[in-house]
Amino acid sequence: IAPNTSFTSTPASLTNATSASFTFSSNEAGTFEASLDGGSYTTVSSPSTLTSLTTGSHTYMVRAIDVAGNV
Length: 71
Prior knowledge:
mainly beta; three-stranded antiparallel beta sheet; 6 strands
């Protein structure tokens, strides 16, 4: 069964900031991967800070991977 991933803190939805910090957790032990604006998933940890963001809207997706490899 895939683990659940939850954001525990996020930046304001509308901002002119060029960086953003997120914290997240999972209901199972394992690792996290994230994707910015539909890009490839890469390994991340919580908290995660994005820098050098361009003006405009962005989508940051995080997924947990448990020790059995379920995503």
